[in-house]
Specification:
about 130 residues; mainly alpha
Length: about 130
């Protein structure tokens, strides 16, 4: 997150009857790309929580928030996949013995994990 110790006053430009704020983005920062879950959360914020989205955008905290959500969701997905593999005894032995069964089981596990992550981290009104 950007450090906001000293707030500068916002200046405005007049266009007809409207005052438009002169906003400048900090283009000097190199930020990592937002992943799948970050983009899905962005879509949810834009469609379902427009005031929160606008506030985060204006405070320049949106990208950091989306990166955090993406990292948390990806970690949760990986953890769920590993736990479900362990619980269902999906291992390398099964892969060697019956590859099609292994692929089907892994696809189902990955789908289930994605759905859980979507419900818990992405499509929720809880901002953390």
């Amino acid at each position: 997150m950007s450090e906001k110790t000293k707030k500068e006053p916002i200046t405005y430009s007049r266009y007809g009857d409207y005052l438009i704020p002169n906003l400048i983005l900090d283009n000097g920062k190199v930020r990592p790309k937002i992943g799948r879950y970050g983009r899905l959360r962005l879509k949810f914020l834009k469609e379902e929580m427009k005031p929160v989205y606008t506030k985060m955008l204006m405070e320049d905290s949106l990208t950091d928030y989306l990166l955090e959500v993406d990292a948390r969701a990806t970690d949760m997905e990986n953890m769920l996949i590993n736990e479900m593999k362990k619980y269902q005894n999906i291992d390398e032995k099964l892969k060697e013995k019956d590859q099609m069964k292994w692929v089907g089981a892994m696809n189902m596990i990955a789908y289930s994990a994605r759905e859980m992550v979507m419900g818990k981290c992405i499509n929720t009104y809880n901002i953390q």
